[in-house]
């Protein structure tokens, strides 16, 4: 499944266009490698996303073509969620 689609369906990022923009700005890593919005995501991959001063790292648990709001959180498991200091790059 495409990275931008996974982020939207899992509701980590609300809109696919926003997910694409974040990926294309170099703020998303899949398994430690810089990812594009078109990068393929598989079960057991780790995704690290930089949102401003917050860094979210998740593990992909399941892939679904569509999902209900209450089932979206079952598609991933949060590994870590940290805040970045202003002096970090």
UniProtKB/TrEMBL annotation:
InterPro entries: RqcP (IPR025490), S4_RNA-bd (IPR002942). Keywords: Protein biosynthesis, RNA-binding, rRNA-binding, tRNA-binding. The keyword Transcription does not apply. Residues 1-64 form the RNA-binding S4 domain. Belongs to the RqcP family. Key component of the ribosome quality control system (RQC), a ribosome-associated complex that mediates the extraction of incompletely synthesized nascent chains from stalled ribosomes and their subsequent degradation. RqcH recruits Ala-charged tRNA, and with RqcP directs the elongation of stalled nascent chains on 50S ribosomal subunits, leading to non-templated C-terminal alanine extensions (Ala tail). The Ala tail promotes nascent chain degradation. RqcP is associated with the translocation-like movement of the peptidyl-tRNA from the A-site into the P-site. Associates with stalled 50S ribosomal subunits. Binds to RqcH, 23S rRNA and the P-site tRNA. Does not require RqcH for association with 50S subunits. This is RQC P-site tRNA stabilizing factor.
């Amino acid at each position: 499944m495409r990275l931008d689609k996974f982020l939207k369906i899992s509701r980590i990022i609300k809109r696919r266009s926003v997910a694409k923009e974040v990926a294309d700005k170099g703020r998303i890593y899949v398994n430690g490698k810089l990812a594009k919005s078109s990068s393929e995501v598989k079960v057991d991959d780790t995704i690290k996303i930089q949102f401003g001063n917050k860094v979210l790292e998740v593990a992909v648990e399941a892939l679904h073509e569509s999902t209900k709001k209450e089932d979206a959180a079952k598609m991933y498991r949060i590994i870590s969620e940290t805040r970045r200091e202003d002096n970090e790059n």
